[in-house]
Amino acid sequence: MQTRDRWIMLFATSMVSFMSTLDASVVNIAVPHISRELNVPMNEAEWVVSVYLVAICALLIFFGRLADQIGRIPVFQTGTVIFVLGSLTCGLSSSLPMLLAARLFQALGSSMVMATNFGIITQTFPINEHGRALGVNSTVVQIGNVAGPGIGGVILAVANWHWIFWINVPIGIIAFLFGHRIFPHESVTWSKVQVDWSGYLTFAAAVISFFVAIYWGQAVGFSTPGVIALFIFAAVLVAAFIWIEKRVATPLLQLGIFRSRGFTLGIISAMLVYMVGYFNNVVMPFYLQETLALSSATAGLILMAVPLLNMVSAPTGGIISDHIGAEKVSFYALFIFFVPLIIFVMVQPGWSIAVLIFGLAMFGVANGAFQNNPMIMDNAGPEYQGIAGSLAALGRNLGMAMGLSLATSLVYLGMSLRAGKHITAYPRSHPDWFVFAMHFSYWFAVALIVAAVILIGSLLRYQRRAVQANQSED
Predict the structure, then answer these.
(1) Which of 330, 372, 437 is nearest to 21 (CA)?
(2) DSSP secondary structure letters along 100-115
(3) What contacts 429, CB < 8 A, 6 or more positions away?
(4) Contacts made by residues 419-422, CB under 8 angstroms, sequence distance 24+
(5) Coil, helix or strand for 258?
(6) Of 147, 269, 277, 386, whose CB is crowded by the most CB atoms within 10 A?
(7) Distance separating alpha carbons of residues 292 and 296, to the nearest angstrom
(8) CA distances (Å), 141 to each of 80, 241, 287, 393, in order?
(9) At what angle do helices 96-114 and 72-92 cross, to 10 degrees?
(10) How far does the chain reach from its first CA to its final CA, in angstroms?
(11) DSSP strands (E only) in 230-322
């Protein structure tokens, strides 16, 4: 493939990746609007966010394995079509059940796209350009993740919530046509497909059980026996999944990929960073719109500070990672996170909004500079590139889903501690309770970044010792 065609291909894959990631976060700011228009409680309207993330997590590994057998491009292009149709149906929905069903269909297409985009990029670009190509893709994906509330706020200022989904349709059609023109046309041989159904069903059940336990625990308390039992059941299913994968002839997941320390720690640290990113998506819209009484448009514009700086730092970090390594760039980027997070754990309603914008901008710099995709893909062997892309996307979406759950639970807990009673809604008569809960939750975000620093730091030490050992042998 010629250089020009490679970059056009990158544009096509990145645009679909942007939309699928954006739709995981853009709905957050529209939940109050959806709740009012569909006449459903706020906690039920939040299912529109949850079912999308959980369904993607449950489907990613399956489509990653399928793509390894029939080809990544057919799965990617089919996923694009399904995602566009799902977006159209979401926008046409007039009831919560219809919207939830459309979101599940949309998640089906999104999981097919996410499972294959990294593998398509690494097989198309030479290894000395992986950092730059994946850096561009990271820019687009991360912007989709962090720009959701900002873009959603701007859309809601001029249109209703249906347009949050409809805007995907023309972009998806253009991306599909670009891909159809540029991608090699691969023939699909279904006779080669072998599905580890026992492994997949066990994995999917574990994911669903885990998140049902989280969402149920938020409503009734995590000490409830049924919630505890569901967490235990999920852990048992994970153990059963590992046991199955070690014994079947054609496993859904090749566990050998986790022998690479760089890959494993890259996945875990990426999950931690995406969890922290979702604190902004959950907490900041409420702080700006409810505590500071700003309009959706103003809140959206303020939140755009994150993706705007992300657009600059991500490709820059990708270029630098081609020279010094993605692990070093990511390690340095983690320390930048402490600047905005300390602002967020201290900010008060009386502070200048410029301080908050500065914090959000610095968050965008750190988030973009963290080179999780090159770090993950380059530490997976050539034989694992397909499943590595799926696992990278799974780690990202697990981080987003867990970040959503953790941030929400911590805010509820913080408000309840301050009020001395159980609270699961914004306390309009006591905004100081929410501010306390916001600070409380962001301290946990600081702890997550500290954990990521420890992980990447240990990886760098391991790599340095390995290099020294090889040099001494020579």
Answers:
(1) 372
(2) HHHHHHHHHHHHHHHT
(3) none
(4) 422/221
(5) helix
(6) 269
(7) 11
(8) 15, 29, 25, 10
(9) 160
(10) 38
(11) none
Q: Buried b / exposed e across 370-399, counting CB within 10 Å, b at 16+?
A: bbbbbbbbbbbeeebbbbbbbbbbbbbbbb
**Encoding tokens for residue 72?**
């990544």
**Quick check: helix, strand or coil at residue 41?**
coil
CA distance linking residue 415 with residue 409, whole number of Å = 10
Containing H/E element for 226?
A: helix 225-245
| Residue 418 CA to its chain's centroid (Å) | 31
Length of the chain in residues, anyone?
Answer: 474
Residue 469: exposed, middle, or buried by beta-carbon count in 10 A (0-12, 13-18, 19+)?
exposed
Range 381-396 average pLDDT: 76
- Cβ atoms 179, 53 nearer than 8 A: no
Rounded-to-integer distance, Cα 298 and Cα 359, Å? 16
Name 44's Cβ contacts closer than 8 Å, sequence gap at least 6: 35, 96
Q: Which of 427, 409, 404 is nearest to 48 (CA)?
A: 404
Rounded to whole angstroms, the Cα distance separating 45 from 34 reads: 7
Contact 15, 179 (CB under 8 A): no
CA angle at 470 for the pair 466 and 471, rounded to the nearest 5°: 115
Domain 3-195+252-473 has CATH 3.30.565.10: no
Q: What is the pLDDT of residues 67-124, one digit of tens each?
A: 878 888 888 899 999 999 999 999 999 899 999 999 999 999 999 988 888 778 877 7
Nearest CA to 128 out of 378, 333, 330 is that of 378
Query: Can you tell me the distance from the alpha carbon of 371 to that of 325, in angstroms, rounded to the nearest whole number?
Result: 9
- Two structure tokens written together for 403: 């970040």
Nearest to 456 by CA among 339, 326, 288, 313: 326
The token pair at 226 is 């049924």
Q: Are 109 and 83 in contact (CB under 8 A)?
A: yes
The amino acid present at 330, given as its one-letter code, is: S
Tokens describing residue 329: 């760039």
Asked whether the beta carbons of 303 and 150 are under 8 A apart, the reply is yes
Q: Do the Cβ atoms of 86 and 109 come closer than 8 Å? A: yes
Domain boundaries, the chain: 3-195+252-473, 196-251
pLDDT one-digit tens code per residue, 157-178 = 788 889 888 988 888 888 888 8
**239 within 8 A of 245, measured Cβ to Cβ:** no
| Token pair 């350009």: residue | 129
Residue-wise pLDDT for 219-231, tens only, equals 777 788 999 999 9
| Tokens standing for residue 316 | 């820059």
CA–CA distance, 30 with 156 (Å, rounded to integer): 8
Q: How many CB atoms are closer than 10 A to CB 328?
A: 17
Is residue 55 within 8 Å of 104, Cβ to Cβ? yes
